[in-house]
Amino acid sequence: MKQLINVPETVVADALRGMAAAHPELTVDVENRVVVRGDAPVQDKVALISGGGSGHEPLHGGFVGYGMLDAACPGEVFTSPVPDQMVRAAAAVDSGAGVLFIVKNYTGDVLNFDMAADMAEDEGVAVAKVLVEDDVAVTDSTFTAGRRGTGATLFVEKMAGAAAQEGAPLERVEAVARKVAGSARSFGVALSACTTPAKGSPTFDLPPGELELGIGIHGEPGRERRAMMTSGEIADFAVDAVLDDLAPDGPVLALVNGMGGTPLLELYGFAAEVHRVLAERGVAATRTLVGNYVTSLDMAGASVTLCRADEELLRLWDAPVRTPGLRWGA
Amino acid sequence: MKQLINVPETVVADALRGMAAAHPELTVDVENRVVVRGDAPVQDKVALISGGGSGHEPLHGGFVGYGMLDAACPGEVFTSPVPDQMVRAAAAVDSGAGVLFIVKNYTGDVLNFDMAADMAEDEGVAVAKVLVEDDVAVTDSTFTAGRRGTGATLFVEKMAGAAAQEGAPLERVEAVARKVAGSARSFGVALSACTTPAKGSPTFDLPPGELELGIGIHGEPGRERRAMMTSGEIADFAVDAVLDDLAPDGPVLALVNGMGGTPLLELYGFAAEVHRVLAERGVAATRTLVGNYVTSLDMAGASVTLCRADEELLRLWDAPVRTPGLRWGA
B162 by DSSP, 3-state: which? Predict the structure, then answer.
């Protein structure tokens, strides 16, 4: 529960100063809280912009770069960014080919991105939007009407980003983003609560010996609490919850995502169990990404996101990407 | 303190099964606990082998691949691997150009790699060894005579790996490894203890409101305990401890490393403070890597490693690398 911070009020600004120091290839506007590709605007390329509350790093700032996002707008911890940030980002990255807003389904995010879209359009920017609402755990939750946006965001940002990098026009990039958002589902589990800088203590109580199934990425309540389960039992529950909803009829891409506080050693063990369950259900995982990508500060736990992978999406997934948090290919 | 595991006895094997599932480009021998580049042995290339207790992931298995390690030998959690693992790894990766063992300075690791070197040489493999002993916090500690081997291991594996990938012969790769090991120093801080699977509870007591300065990567005692400090105060202490010993007369490479349980948001904020201190001391950090690389399970905290960077080392650092845990370049 102790935190490596100065004061809660400067946590986001401090982190942005650190990103600026570590990643000279990015342009980080600390004051206005916008992280931009250093080479933006990229001529004739559709620009991708996402954002949301801080505390989920590397999402979204860590996904800014070649083949993924053009800009990210971080809010305060677990708090929506404001429309001015998105408008400023749009002005910085729009080459004239338009921008796509990638929005996780939280009421504040949706509202503020909507407002920003209107404002940017008033300034002559063509704006498309895609909503990510992949969490099958619950419908309507704290901060959310409908399903929450979680791990699928990474797939949307990666694959729509690849399409944009290849030169696809705005309608096509938007269509890819919608296709991915419609093809990916998630389920998360918490073994511990997270601690926000402002509160300084765990955001909810999770007694020793219990876990929460279907947790959101801010510690929103899930489906149920149970006595602690093994990694294998959790994988059974989480993968089945996703498969029940997704019903893939072919191979999938898998994200075995840590919530922040669970060691990589344990995440890889969990990935083995996720693969076992998928094999038992006759589902092939053609790609598996394991690590802390869509986190919830120091929460212990993990989520599973599966994305139906046809040839097009597999190609877009494999396309080169160069960001602080995700990087492969030529 | 709750863990995403099946039973403590299978944690390492489970993680290796997960690595095999997620990284088809690696050859993972789960039974014998050896992780090998899928294309090994690489013709005419010196092979790099490292290993150590598990619980520090992505070190070492996550650093196997093009431009870094050829093989890694994971022991039980916080327990040295056995000589048979290194001998088996050497047989799998030696192309005839010889192997370099990269050994963190822990008594068990040193002993077992020494024994393995003798055994491999008996089988006709040319073996060189380099010891990493970079932690300036204390001399002689739990498990260690002399200084502990910590974050500098990443620099040694990366830069010696780049030299080997370029085709340097064994003596040259060994010389690079020694040069890097002699050019890098570290200092770590714990805000919380870690929890090993076997124990299931924190390995030491760190009261609320206190931190441990100079911690090792297994929770070995550090220099002193103090009342909780800000990120900026910790950066002052850690960077000065490293600079006092390293006394760089030019630019450095910086690793701002998370111990596992500290969110990336906080690590970036800490990186900003590390840069501030370096700037105040007149030291330029030409490259800064921020993230969880040499971890201690779920311990909260961070370490700073600085490496003197002449032209040669900067070139080897920037050279392409493709591993699960570190990846950049063409």
Answer: helix
A108, with CB counted inside 10 A (0-12, 13-18, 19+), is middle
Tokens at A114, concatenated: 């909507």
Helix (H) or strand (E) holding B273: helix B264-280
Q: How far apart are the C-alpha atoms of A310 and A180, rounded to whole Å?
A: 10
Are B168 and B288 within 8 A, CB to CB? no
- Which two structure tokens, joined as six digits, stand for A207? 């007694």
Average pLDDT over residues A254-282: 98
Residue B256 to residue A22, Cβ atoms within 8 A: yes
Are the C-beta atoms of B78 and B104 separated by less than 8 Å? no
Cβ–Cβ of A6/B297 closer than 8 Å? Answer: no
Q: Which residue matches tokens 């063509």?
A: A126
- How far apart, in whole angstroms, are the C-alpha atoms of residue A123 and residue A66? 26
- Chain A residues inside the 8 Å CB shell of B261: 261, 298
A3, A76, A264: best mutation site toward chain B, by most B Cβ within 10 Å? A264
Between A and B, how many residue pairs show a Cβ–Cβ distance under 8 A? 198
For residue B269, the chain A residues in CB contact (below 8 A) are 4-6, 10-11, 14-15, 17-18
- Count CA atoms closer than 13 A to A13's CA, side-chain side: 8
pLDDT band at B1 (very low <50, low <70, confident <90, very high): low
pLDDT of residue A179: 98
Two structure tokens written together for A285: 């995982």
> For the ranges A137-151, A152-166, A287-301, which has the lowest average pLDDT?
A137-151
Closest CA to B71 of B94, B44, B55: B94
CA neighbor of A255 nearest in space, from A186, A322, A169: A186
Of A2, A209, A301, the CB nearest to B192: A2
B77 touches A: beta carbon within 8 Å: yes
Instruction: Indicate the pLDDT class of residue A132, thresholds 50, 70 and 90.
Output: very high
What DSSP element (H or E) covers B119?
Answer: helix B107-122
Let me know if B205 is exposed, middle or buried by CB neighbors in 10 A (0-12, 13-18, 19+): exposed
Tell me the percentage of chain B whose pLDDT exceeds 90: 92
| Residue A234 pLDDT exceeds 80 | yes
Question: Which domains occur in chain B, in start order?
Answer: 12-182 (3.40.50.10440), 184-319 (3.30.1180.20)
Mean pLDDT of B296-307: 97
Q: Does B191 touch chain A (CB under 8 A)?
A: yes
